[in-house]
Sequence to fold (383 residues):
Amino acid sequence: MNYRPFGKNNYQVSALGLGCMRLPRIFENNQARVDEEKAFELIRYAATHGINYFDTALTYHNSTSEEVLGKALEGGLRKQVKIATKQPVWFMHTQADIRRNLENTLKKLRTDYLDIYLIHNINPSCWKEIRQREIFREYEKFREEGMIKSIGFSFHGGPQLFSEVLAAYPWEMCQVQQNLLDTDKEATENAIALAGQKGCALVIMEPLRGGGLAQATKEVQSIYDSFPVKRSPVEWAFRHLLNYHQVSTILSGMSTMEQLKENIEIFSRPESLPGCLSSEEKALLNRVKASYDAINTIPCTGCEYCMPCPHGVNISRAFALYNDALRFENFAPSQRGYWFTTTMGGDAGRCKECGACTQHCPQGIDIIQQLKVAHQALKGWIE
Ligand code: SF4
Ligand code: SF4
Fold:
């Protein structure tokens, strides 16, 4: 396994981190739950084969992910790894809730400290409240008391908001969505440079864009096949991110031992290092991106000029998920992503057709109508 510095913190983390949002699951009576036996095997294998960064959140797997991770790391493994977890603002009704939720998280994780504690999913709808309530000041108290070691945030939004959030507080880490299709979306490629300049450890989520990049379309596969060195679509997607020297760890939500072993192998190669991409490889990945971008979808650029919606609809997120479902010809990952958006109160079913958003869209998208289409296609996931 290759290791990288974690921002200004005086330790190194594995370039591959295990995201505990896609643990193996069992379905019973139209309900899903984590398959503990398989999840324990996966987590313990990761912790004993070089992975030392584990990411979870209060809400993952119906709020059971932290407990599963805590149980899996019992018996000495916890001390060998870094644990990052997150609390979302929609669980922080009062300042006292923030502490209660953290105490509960520590119990579930069977630990008396967290290595990194994040504010979960800062986005255009909740940033104002987070800043006004100075939630990071509450986190500072936890750090003084030894309950957490570092303060960070995870982010879904555009580059302007990302710069604002980064400038508002001396965060020790940030977690952003990036992959070879998002270089000009979400926080954008520039965010990687910005976080690096500030010495803020950078953790990447959705490196395979919900798993969609793991299976190439016919055209994309032919682009990959044209290159003299043969690599799987998964390895190409990871190499794109490994190339950035600012990136500390790349989270992958692995659900099977096969995926875990394949990824450990990729991240352990001597060439899987910052600066690994040649100019020919960069050109190849630009062609891959262009091929995906050419697929006809809702022409949303993710600019967020239409947001915040007064009723909380996360418009750009709904369109991004719907577009991915079309692009990758696979609705399940987007439906799951939409389920999370729904639990955060951002689903398109909340649209009251007030029309406040439509006039702001530079793409001229019929937002109200297209939200209905996206909602119809993405609703109904069982977590
Ligand atoms: S039309 Fe719907 S999505 Fe647009 S601002 Fe109004 S409620 Fe929000
Ligand atoms: S719907 Fe239009 S305004 Fe809203 S994020 Fe997409 S492109 Fe931007």
In short: Residues 300-306, 315-316, 319, 360-361, 363, 365, 367 surround iron/sulfur cluster (ligand 2) (CB under 6 Å). The chain has 15 helices and twelve strands.
